[in-house]
Amino acid sequence: MADTGASRQLRDSESETEDTVRVASRAATGSTTAAGKSSRRPARSGYKRPAKSPSTSPPPLAGKTSTPAPDNHIQCSKNSVAPNYKLSSITKLTASENYCAWRDISQYVLEPFNCWNIVLGEETIEDYAEEDNDNFIDRYQYLATYFIQTIESQWLILLATHKTPPKIWTALEDKFAREITLSFFDQLNSVFDTKYDTLDLLSDHINKYDTLWNRLHLRCSTASSTDRYTLPFVFQTVFESPEAKAAILLRSLPESMNNIVDNL
What we know:
Layout: H1 2-40, H2 99-110, H3 116-119, H4 134-150, H5 156-162, H6 165-193, H7 202-221, H8 231-234, H9 242-251, H10 258-262
């Protein structure tokens, strides 16, 4: 029994020793960790984080200037707004043959965008104060884009030479409308001078005459009273008349067929 009591006492003593060692070990570990943290982030008495310096723009490149363009410059706008319209859908002006169609389409497109008065010279930048001219400049720039993108490259020299929309428009009229007038006379003469050769088929003569007539009818139908050369417009009602078409056709027949004509 004495041995048993001594053994129990020995075990209790060993358990207390282990507990003491364990507590001491934990204390030492905590102390080491705290010391490690302290060594990694030492206290800095009186330290203040430096304030961020305000961002600055990079210096201008050599040879460049940061001076803004004057507000009343004809090629400068604060708004930079242009109509959202695909100019690629418009057939380009190539020659006198399609000038009338291009001109009419241009007027149709430019009027809703309030650019047509600029083309005619009825509205200029002088009509506005410097602080109110941005809308005019936007429309002026759109006109420049319109001309460049809807005129064949071989005629762009007219834009570079005359520069402003009114002068460019007048130059185009002088160039192409004059050619149209000369070609109109040629086409008109071809209708009135055509004659039926009895050696040919009458049906061939009628088909040829019909082709000449329809070509002039198309030309006159696109004419406008505001055109500089108004002769096609004057003949517009003539080439819309079936009676005029029949009368001129009968005129093309030879005298040997007068009895047929009289019986019609």
